[in-house]
Write a structure and sequence with these properties.
single chain, alpha+beta, Ribosomal Protein S5, domain 2, Alpha-Beta Plaits, 2 domains, three-stranded mixed β-sheet, three-stranded antiparallel β-sheet, 7 helices, about 30% helix, globular
Length: about 220
């Protein structure tokens, strides 16, 4: 089934700040949602310049899929407030706030290809052009615990410097780029390995599990 794989976030002035959820169910209370945490961070810093809001979040990106849906929601809330309240925050300031939400949240402030080091918060831009390709994402409905996935890998030096991707044809990526999470996660869920294999059989020039899984994506020539 084809679908638009993005959440929708909107906010309007209100008498009291309330989060309204729709779409996929999200575990935990509203206070723990990264959208609300982002709102509180900005409210604490800018005070009355940030009004009370009715916040509407429609969830489409599945949880436990390695797609960073919750992190993106939190980062986008920072960007939304910056625009809505004319706070004039530079991306660096928003990224510093985003880091308080999670290690991968600053990425979604920049929203462009980045080479990440440290915990994922130290980034430098990478100029990758995929304009001649399309990306197909398969979400099999399997929830993979991020914490459990991290507990099953041993950090090791990358076999290839991803900063050099610009000089490597996409058709060669499969021979140089790997996701360390695939080995343990595929062992738990062999069907994910089958999905990756099927993407290659269907003509993908590169396929991989996304993050700690369970989504698997393929890059295809247009």
């Amino acid at each position: 089934m084809n679908m638009q794989l993005h959440d929708v976030l909107e906010a309007v002035p209100a008498a009291a700040t309330t989060l309204h959820m729709s779409g996929l169910a999200v575990a935990g209370g509203d206070a723990d949602n990264l959208v609300m945490k982002a709102y509180r961070l900005v409210k604490e810093r800018y005070g009355e310049r940030v009004p009370q809001l009715d916040i509407y979040l429609h969830k489409v990106i599945p949880m436990g899929a390695g797609l960073g849906g919750g992190s993106a929601d939190g980062a986008c809330m920072l960007r939304l407030l910056n625009d809505l309240c004319a706070l004039k925050m530079e991306k660096k300031e928003m990224a510093e706030l985003a880091l308080q939400l999670g290690s991968d949240c600053p990425f979604f402030i920049y929203d462009t290809p980045q080479f990440a080091t440290g915990r994922g918060e130290i980034m430098s831009p990478v100029d990758i052009d995929l304009s001649g390709y399309e990306i197909r994402v398969v979400c099999p409905g399997i929830h993979v615990s991020t914490a459990k996935a991290f507990g099953m890998i041993t950090p090791r030096p990358a076999p290839y410097d991803l900063r050099q991707l610009t000089s490597l044809p996409v058709s060669e990526w499969r021979h140089h780029i790997s996701n360390d999470f695939e080995e343990p996660v595929f062992a738990m869920h062999p069907e994910l390995g089958d999905i990756k294999r099927q993407l290659y059989e269907q003509g993908a020039v590169f396929a991989s599990m996304s993050g700690s899984g369970s989504a698997v994506y393929g890059i295809f020539r247009n």
